[in-house]
Fold this sequence. Notes:
Blueprint: E1 14-22, E2 28-39, E3 42-48, H1 52-60, E4 62-67, H2 71-79, E5 87-90, E6 93-96, E7 101-116, E8 121-136, H3 147-160, H4 166-186, H5 189-204
Antiparallel strand pairs: 1-2, 1-4, 2-3, 3-8, 4-7, 5-6, 7-8
Helix pairs in contact: 3-4, 3-5, 4-5
Bound molecules: flavin mononucleotide.
Amino acid sequence: xxxxxxxxxxxxxxxxxxxxxxxxxxxxxxxxxxxxxxxxxxxxxxxxxxxxxxxxxxxxxxxxxxxxxxxxxxxxxxxxxxxxxxxxxxxxxxxxxxxxxxxxxxxxxxxxxxxxxxxxxxxxxxxxxxxxxxxxxxxxxxxxxxxxxxxxxxxxxxxxxxxxxxxxxxxxxxxxxxxxxxxxxxxxxxxxxxxxxxxxxxxxx
Length: 205
Ligand SMILES: Cc1cc2nc3c(=O)[nH]c(=O)nc-3n(C[C@H](O)[C@H](O)[C@H](O)COP(=O)(O)O)c2cc1C
């Protein structure tokens, strides 16, 4: 049977996806949402209060996770509503027509939590869900994880840091530390080790 491994999703990593849901009147909605792969058949979402996605998931207890890299879909559903042309139905649930792959998920647990960092405190809802049906639409599907991009950006800055003035070097270092924060949140052990090595390299330069 197909599971998240067949989509290239690894346990413990967070992937950037487009989640499609529908409201109580059957109107489709799409939003970029991070999906944490908990196990071969289990995922977790952390949703901010006030999103349509959270409201629709609470209403229907199910949703669709779309794996794609189309920049216009990511931007289109963040800056406004995607037109109905983008959606297609599968077993009464909406997915994104040009997605590389999608899977349906059903909610097993909803828990409200408060996330706090040194800047803010926000109410979030944690959604645990089981993976049901997986549909692969294109060959070579690759789920989107930000860690490798953050590592490459950091590496580029690390090679430029010696060429720039002190203020710019400080700015680059801050950016690298921000990238490191991302990698630690979304990446694998190898990603984290690579980032750690970049920071060590900069320190020793
Ligand atoms: C790459 C990316 C990842 C995101 N991940 C999340 C997430 O994990 N949880 C969340 O609540 N919002 C997340 N957001 C923000 C939502 O997509 C954004 O609030 C969106 O407008 C919600 O749309 P909706 O009201 O139609 O559900 C993310 C945004 C981007 C661009």
